Structure formats: C-alpha cells, structure tokens
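Q: Please design a sequence for this.
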C-alpha cells in the first residue's frame, strides 16, 4: 500500500483499495468481452455493497448462497443479474428468492422436485439449474473440497435422474479453489465425459468459482479457450462466479502492536485476531503477508504474532522484521478484502474492525464503524 495516510487510521481496521479492485474488474471484464461469457461476483467472499455500484460497471452481476445475499444484491446491485445456489432452500425463503433471482440452482433432484411446481410458475422470469458433482477436484484441503468422499455438494452421475430434467435450463459445477486455468481444463474434460451428453439441451453451464483469474501469472488464454470450447460445442452461455478473484489483493487489515513479551521467543500481541478477523489463517491454513516482513528468521527480529484473545491458538504466525517491534507499531496485513469481513465475529468480545475505502483519488472514506452495541445486540 503506497498511501502512508493509512497508518494514521485507528486500529484495527480494514482498508479496501478501490484502485486494486478496479484492476481486477478490468481483467474480468476483458474475459467477458473476449468470450461473451458472464461473470458474477460470489458474494460469499466479499459482500461490501458500498462498492457494488462500481462492480456493476464491469461484470454481469452477483451470485448468492441464500436469501440474505440475494437480497443484498437486489437492494444494492439490482440492475444486474442475481443468481443463487444453496445446498438446500427453505420453503419460506424460496418464494422470495423467486421474486428477485434470475437463476436458481438446486443441489439435488429432491430439492428440484420439492420446489418444481412453485418454480415453474415463475419460469417466464427465472431459470433453474442443477449443481452436478463431477467427483473430480484438485483441491487438497478437505474443508474446501466439494468433491471429497460422501460430499453433500452437487449431484453425482450415479444419482443423476435424467428423466427429471424438464424445466431445467442449466448445469452448475463448483470444484475449484484458488486454481489456474489448467485445472479448469482438466476438470472440464471430466465434466464433459460424465455430463456432456446433457449440455446441448441446456441454455447455460456455470463453471462455479475458484478461478484465480486476477492472480499474477494466471493463464487467461487457456480460460478463454475453455469457455469458447463449451459455448461453441454445445451452444450454451457460460457463467463464471469467482469470489476471490474479484477482490484479490484489494484490501488490508491494519493492526497495532499492544504488547511485546517473551516465552522461548519474542511474542507480539496485536489488536487483530485470527479467530475473529482472519479465520482462514486457522482454517485453510493460510499465511497473510505483512508489509516489510519475512518468514521467521529471514530478518534479524522474529516474533510470534498473537491476538489479544484467550484462545491459545489465536496465532497469526511467526514473522521477522528488520527492526525490533515496538508497542504502538502498525502492522499491515495484505489480501484482507476476501473471506475476512464476511466472516468476522465478536468472539471474546473482540471489536469488529472498522471498514474504510481508499478511493482512487487517494481520499480515505469511512464505510463502517462498529462499537459495543454491535457485540451486545447479537447475543
Ligand atoms: C465459494 C463459491 C464460489 C466462489 O469461490 P471463490 O473461490 O471465492 O472464487 C462460487 N460458487 C460457489 C458455489 C461457491 O461455493
């Protein structure tokens, strides 16, 4: 982050970087333009609706994991497409979804049969699809692998009921996570082998998310070829619904050092928490980069960075710095726009970080500030 003014902000806080967001959106827009595919923001990763009008200028819309995300898109990006996929819908939610969504994707034939008659009464406005599970994924972390054994996500070929396709316009698969176009190419081969015979009767195929399109070195040519191949061969519209790629490297978490202690090594306690503010650090596991830092022992001063919570494992990692850390020092964690704010919680009574937008002009705008009442109200 170039903007030194950021360092004066009260911590902890997130800073969304408009410039970086726009760079990502330009890449995604060019994929839409080159192929005619449609790209949707998966709101699960990033739901900062203050920038939805900006996002709407570049890509075709959003996808939701259920009613709340769909409503958010409807209220804040209502002029673009809204798609929804959920492993299971509730009756009371489904009626409202029908009034706001363009596509609704079902996870099983039993869900499709359950909602079919209600769904088809909206078939002039809404299209319906099924999530398939090709049982092929290159994701090695089980918690992020929709194709692990006995997965509940998507219909496998053995469970596919081809007689129940009446009213279905599209198929959806989501089997990737932070992966390149070569993975998509290999995945598509399996998807086509297993389900390709149904494609020509469909209007659209949704390739899901997990495409690391805006990461440096991503092979967009291969992505374009994959999209072209499916669209041309089967006469369908391809959709992609990346979450990460939309806001990749487009945000920071700014924190302060609260204390420095020692127990066999240097320890720094900071006012941000892995458990509350960057849960992927514990789940994935994942190591965020901090400005001017290295792995342990790369620079002279190594610290274990931990949160001011009571959870022993609330540790972000071991980082080294050129100079000793001091109480009050600011640390800037990178790539904190995605899967962060949407996952925040107030475990241990830890405050929710404020959210700022670093505008293209350099102006810093406060989007959200939280206080004690946000903690109390939820309990
Ligand atoms: C999580 C998810 C996405 C977005 O995935 P990213 O890895 O953030 O690109 C898209 N579609 C579905 C069905 C998902 O579950």
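A: Design:
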């Amino acid at each position: 982050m170039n903007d030194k003014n950021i360092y004066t902000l009260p911590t902890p806080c997130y800073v969304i970087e408009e410039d970086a967001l726009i760079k990502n959106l330009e890449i995604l827009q060019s994929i839409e333009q080159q192929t005619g595919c449609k790209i949707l923001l998966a709101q699960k990763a990033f739901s900062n609706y203050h920038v939805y009008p900006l996002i709407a200028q570049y890509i075709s819309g959003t996808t939701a994991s259920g009613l709340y995300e769909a409503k958010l898109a409807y209220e804040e990006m209502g002029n673009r497409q809204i798609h929804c996929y959920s492993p299971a819908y509730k009756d009371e939610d489904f009626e409202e979804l029908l009034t706001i969504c363009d596509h609704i994707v079902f996870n099983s034939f039993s869900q499709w049969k359950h909602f079919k008659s209600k769904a088809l009464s909206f078939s002039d406005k809404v299209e319906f699809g099924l999530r398939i599970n090709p049982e092929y994924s290159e994701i090695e972390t089980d918690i992020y692998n929709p194709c692990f054994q006995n997965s509940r996500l998507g219909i496998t070929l053995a469970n596919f009921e081809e007689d129940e396709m009446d009213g279905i316009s599209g198929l959806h698969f989501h089997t990737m996570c932070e992966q390149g176009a070569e993975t998509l190419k290999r995945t598509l081969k399996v998807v086509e082998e297993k389900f390709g015979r149904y494609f020509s009767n469909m209007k659209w195929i949704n390739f899901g998310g997990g495409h690391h399109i805006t990461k440096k070195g991503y092979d967009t040519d291969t992505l374009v070829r994959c999209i072209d191949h499916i669209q041309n061969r089967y006469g369908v519209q391809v959709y992609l619904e990346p979450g990460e790629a939309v806001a990749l490297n487009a945000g920071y978490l700014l924190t302060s050092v609260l204390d420095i202690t020692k127990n066999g090594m240097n320890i720094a306690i900071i006012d941000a928490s892995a458990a509350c503010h960057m849960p992927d650090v514990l789940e994935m596991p994942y190591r965020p980069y901090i400005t001017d830092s290295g792995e342990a022992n790369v620079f002279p001063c190594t610290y274990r960075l931990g949160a001011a919570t009571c959870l022993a494992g609330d540790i972000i990692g071991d980082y080294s710095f050129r100079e000793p850390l001091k109480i009050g020092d600011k640390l800037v964690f990178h790539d904190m726009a995605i899967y962060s704010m949407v996952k925040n919680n107030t475990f241990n009574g830890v405050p929710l970080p404020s959210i700022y937008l670093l505008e293209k002009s350099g102006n810093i705008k406060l989007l959200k500030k939280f206080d004690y009442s946000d903690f109390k109200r939820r309990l």
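Q: Thanks. Anything notable?
A: The mean pLDDT is 97. The first helix runs from residue 18 to 35.
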